[in-house]
Design brief:
This protein has about 200 residues and is of the alpha/beta class. The chain has one domain (about 5-195): Vaccinia Virus protein VP39 (Rossmann fold, 3-Layer(aba) Sandwich), CATH 3.40.50. The chain contains seven helices and seven strands, in the order αααβαβαββαβαββ. The chain has helices at about 5-10, 25-30, 35-40, 50-60, 70-80, 115-125, 155-165; strands spanning about 40-45, 65-70, 85-90, 100-105, 130-140, 165-175, 190-195. A seven-stranded mixed beta sheet has the order 3-2-1-4-5-7-6, sandwiched between helices. It is globular and about 40 Å long. It starts with a helix and ends with a strand. The structure holds S-adenosylmethionine. S-adenosylmethionine binds near residues 69, 93, 106, 107 and 108.
Length: about 200
């Protein structure tokens, strides 16, 4: 199953677009401040309009790249950004090249067709240098948002299974803050995964 993301943006069918960074992100950046400040290269895949990437950029001393497959999303991210801001690029994470110290994941994993999840994890393992980190807010239970998907739900155990081949779980927590449409127990999970050497 493939999704025409450009079409979704052109048609304005973008229920994930909340006009702000994830409400938990500022707290995450504080908890993991050392990691963020030490990262020279940070990637935000599936960045959409770039709210998360812009907030990360304000906390980062390095280069933040917002990557999205939909040119419409990147065009809007550029419009919303005060310079210098993150570097914005149109591209497919499955082909993207780079060596990042930190990747921030938010509603990208759940946007990927279920059958491509192993490939997503392999891509993250390829893009994150050994010892580098993936910090994510995973949307576990998006059922209340209507259609069959995307977003596609995932169980905690499945995340452990998918990422376990390449990453070690260093930290996890239930977000204390979220968007009103995602309130409810166990709907999201924050994870810090470290790329094995
Ligand atoms: C559910 S949206 C989330 C956007 C953003 N993270 C947010 O929370 O507002 C998923 C995003 O991933 C992008 N995307 C989907 N597949 C992608 C791929 N293979 N490479 C890069 N971006 C992709 C889509 O265009 C879309 O902007």
């Amino acid at each position: 199953m493939s999704v025409d993301w450009s079409k979704r943006y052109r048609q304005g069918k973008t229920p994930w677009e909340k006009g702000q960074a994830h409400p938990e992100l500022a707290a995450l950046l504080e908890v993991h401040r050392d990691l963020v400040e030490a990262a020279d290269h940070i990637l935000v895949p599936g960045c959409g309009f770039g709210h998360d990437a812009r907030l990360i950029d304000r906390h980062s001393k390095g280069t933040v790249t917002g990557l999205d497959i939909a040119p419409e999303a990147i065009e809007q991210a550029r419009i919303l950004t005060e310079k210098p801001g993150p570097r914005w690029v149109v591209g497919d994470l499955f082909n993207w090249q780079g060596a990042y110290d930190l990747v921030f994941e938010h509603t990208c994993f759940c946007a990927i067709p279920v059958e491509r999840r192993p490939e997503y994890v392999e891509s993250m393992a390829r893009l994150i240098r050994p010892g580098g980190s993936l910090l994510g807010i995973f949307f576990l239970n998006p059922d209340h948002e209507g259609e069959a998907g995307p977003p596609f739900g995932v169980q905690r155990e499945e995340l452990d299974h998918f990422f376990g081949n390449f990453f070690e779980i260093r930290w996890s927590a239930a977000p204390r803050q979220t968007y009103p449409s995602r309130l409810g127990d166990g709907r999201e999970l924050s994870l810090l995964l470290q790329r094995q050497a």
